[in-house]
Hints:
mainly beta, single chain
Amino acid sequence: MVRISAVVGILVLAVLLASCGDAAVELVSVDTPAVAPLLIPPLLEPTVEDGVSRYGLTIGTSQHDYKQTGMTDTYSYNGTSVLGPTLRLRTGDSVVISVTNELDEATTTHWHGADVPAEDDGGPHSIIEPGETWVADFDVIQPAATLWYHPHAHGSTAEHVYRGAAGLLIIDDDNPAAATLPGTYGIDDIPVIIQDRAFTEDGQLDFAIDDGDEGKLDGVLTVNGTINPYVETPTGLVRLRLLNGSQGRIYQLSVAGADMTKIASDGGYLTSPVAIEQITLAPGDRAEIIVNVGVESAALIDGTFGRVLELRPNGSDLGMGTLPDKLATIERISESEITVDRSFDMGDVRNFWEFDASWAINGVQFDMNRIDVTVQLGATERWTLSSDDGQHVFHPHQIQFQILAINGEPPPPEESGWEDSVLVNGNREVVIIARFHTYAAEEIPYMFHCHILDHEDLGMMGQFLIVE
Length: 468
């Protein structure tokens, strides 16, 4: 009863906010059944040759039925109507992924959260011209995690992702805890890619860049490209792999009608399951949660949109079970290892007379020809992240980091795992620590940037090399 009352309170507040400030938001009531089955992106199976797993991706145009006035033009991978297939890799695998560009404009494909060599990272320097194929060749050296892939060409990242080009990249490993967790893809292990969208009168995506503090916020919520979705699940433990693939929207997620437990953050499992009431999911963030579904439907809900996804039990008991007490061993990086301290301030650097957006890090905007930071291979660095104004999501490529402090206090258990994206604003200064000990990058740089995609495309990005 307490949980349901809290949910009702959140939704009432959302209605008030929508009526007075964000009238375009389409609220979904938890009291009415969802209307559309959740689209589950297909798994892409590799071809295995001489111990190497080979995957083929093609990015191109497609059409998707968002239930608007007509079919909506989209971008996608491998001919799906929207988004792309899920890639499932394994720690220790040698992987080759070819990406062919069938768009009429240049693009890239970046493996967000992956610890890979810079030439395989897929950032702005790895441009794929129309009709060309780019190949990433790397070993999977990190533990189990939910990552994702998306275009990353400077100046067009927001639009390419917005039009539908994105997908999950799941890494599995031999962690014995995995055997006790829900793991049947699409049955009790559900991908949940959350994105807000706007449509024109003729049903097309209404893309635009917003140079404001929060980026562009749209009024129609989609999950895996589905509006007002439900998914049939077993009774018992169900795993949701959450990804915020939105342009700028930050979600405040909770569960009505069931308990919610967080088991993993951006970079993999937490040390132990953490029972939570609410989770903040900023653009680029991933989180894995367990929902204990009963005989009645449960609902994933957001403080602005209402219901995100209905979990509708189908009578199967596949999900019955209990969570393990221990998920993983996470070695805390000692501050005694620190070799370098750096600070990154994220803000708007335009003055009173300027009208064009000037989002920047440490007062400078992105320049493909400038290296902003040089890191020594083997170093352990502490980075202090702050903001003068606006909402920002700091994301460095290649590394997974640990949070040392949020506003001077140690992070709570649910934010004490491995991360690659973290929310920063004027009321939230974050200190992180990371080791740079896997790959040197002396020619092609890695990126660090805001993952509010409007801010990234408008200049809030820098580059770093890792040198021996």
